[in-house]
Hints:
Layout: H1 6-30, H2 35-47, E1 60-61, H3 67-77, H4 82-98, H5 110-132, H6 141-146, H7 148-157, H8 162-177, H9 183-188, H10 191-206, H11 218-221, H12 236-261, H13 271-288, E2 294-295, H14 297-305, H15 312-327, H16 337-351, H17 354-363, H18 365-380, H19 383-402, E3 405-413, E4 419-429, H20 434-442, E5 450-460, H21 462-478, E6 483-486
Parallel strand pairs: 4-5, 5-6
Antiparallel strand pairs: 1-2, 3-4
Helix pairs in contact: 1-2, 1-10, 1-14, 1-15, 1-16, 2-13, 2-15, 3-12, 4-12, 4-13, 5-16, 5-18, 5-19, 8-10, 8-16, 12-13, 12-14, 17-18, 18-19, 20-21
Amino acid sequence: MRAVPWRHDLPASLVVFLVALPLCVGVAVASGVPAELGLVTGIVGGLVVGLLPGSTLQVSGPAAGLTVLVADAVQRFGAGALGLLVLGTGLLQLAMGALRLGRWFRAISTSVVHGMLAGIGLTLLTGQLYALADRRAPATGPDKLARLPALLRDTLTGAAHPSAVLLGIGTLAVLIGWKHLPQRLATAVPAPLAAVGLAAAVTAAADLPVARVRVAGLLDVVHLPEPDSLGALAGTAGLGTVVAFTLIASAETLFSAAAVDRMHHGPRTDYDRELTAQGLGNTVCGLLGALPMTAVIVRSAANVQAGARSRASRFLHGLWLLLFTALLPGALGLVPLCALAAVLVHAGAKLVPVRRIVALCREHRSEAAVLVVTAVAIIATDLFEGVLIGIGLAVVTSAWQTSTLQIAVEEVVLTTGQPLHRVRLSGNATFLRLPRLLDTLERLPADRPVELDWSGLRHLDHACTVALTSWAAQHRARSTAPLAVEPPLPTIA
Length: 493
């Protein structure tokens, strides 16, 4: 058996643990569930998924990308139904992995994915700004944006909780400025851990009157799915939530895998096995009533950059999370909620691909439009509907770009001296080009012969075939001049 390179994986696992700890807690609190449930998902991501084949260095746990959807599900169905929804997600992922559908997620437009992350990031950022000021966030994305001026006014006038605001701003300053410290210090301690640790120390030393994380033991928050919650899956809303969990968690996992594979030269990801591993992890999380999991690019990148060589680092990071939660649960009670909100504001801002949007606007405006529309749709509606809108727009944009139809109208004089209009069609004739095609044909004079040559078409869809047949019949009915068609149109009954 191949020896585990402990010299590399042990220190890497400690780095990933330190990065994952504040994020697990922050995602859980932002989702409206006990902080320990985020740690449970991180533990399962390490101890269960960390040992399974698929991706070697990718790290799984609760993700900021699902926070908005989880919070909505908890508000709509109740915290007791969350385990059942996550269980359904895991079983669906297992079925997709067995059917070898993992690789098909690579066919999703990258603009839709980046738009999804941007929409999630903006929703997360705007929502957590309220938590940073110790305020309750409005329920919908448009309301969150609309009430930001009032939040800013209250912050500047001192009407908002001043201690929470100052502590949150200080936490943000540490997160942003940490990378500018000497490299040895910046790399030794992850920025989220340093920021949250300093905020907790200041809160304890000054005895600041700010809300803190509520602490309970793991056994107090872990529970099997409640039978009374089966009604959550009975309607379209519950099933839609499961499908949304599945699609977004799977897409984020597999796109993260592609990104992680570009960071190292080790074994490549088996997408179907990785999807199966995620399905098993979410099934366990569902049985424990915890948060859904995905592979998380922040932890995965930290794992690669720390020098991990095998799956051992993933497993060990889950073990450190378990030991910390079991032995030092009281430490979580020192963490102020505004500091966790600052961590998530910072994480949400990083999800918005500003540089990519600028580059797309310069080179591929249609792709930039897909990205922006997807993000705006997520903010205006919800995550599932926004992604569907983005995918639909990406399909239409792609169809429009590939549906290139050239229409050439020539006026030819016959040997008899009579003028003839020759219409040559080439390229791809689809329903998207029907308005222009029919406008051109209907402008042809009825008293002159017409020759329609469509032999140069590479593709002719059913809508165009029916439209051309109908136009030919109408032209023959109202014109005394002959109409020649090459190839011949179908006979009209």
